[in-house]
Amino acid sequence: MVSLWLFTTLVALLALQRIWELRRSRQNEVWLQSQGGQEHHPGHYPVLVGLHSTWFAAMLAEAWLLHPEPSEALMGLAGLGLLLGQCLRYAAMRTLGSRWSTRIYVLPGQPRITTGPYRLLRHPNYLGVMLEIAAVPLLGGAWRTALVWSVANLFLLWHRIRLEDRVLAANEP
Questions:
Q1: The whole model's pTM is what?
Q2: Is the per-residue pLDDT at 1 higher than 80?
Q3: Does residue 147 contact residue 153 with C-beta atoms inside 8 Å?
């Protein structure tokens, strides 16, 4: 079993990674605005931030308070899910470059990105996030967090993807 301290360290590193990503997103948003980009549907964003913030707290609370002991097989699958999720998210970020943001921004008149992982998947970043939200808690045996936050994230992403797809379709040249 992964020790509670090792699991906590992993979660802390992922939290720091997300903070760095938020800073990068903000820099990209400034650039997008300078190019005429505008944010669309900002009302869902606080819910997204709340979901992700409470996910960190919930998995740590579950691991520390309930002391679950995941099997090695489950931890192996969870580790693979985390790795695949990270690869998908960072491939999407790299492909989108300055157009990547945690908010819904679109550059007027620019076509959708169809290179990199977008050749195969319409929303590779969101699939990566789904994998991470399910996998990371399982590394600490926090299956309740994995289940509840995965379902909540599924509903939120379903809503966000619908909003994003409408904005992208309306923007296509």
A1: 0.94
A2: no
A3: no
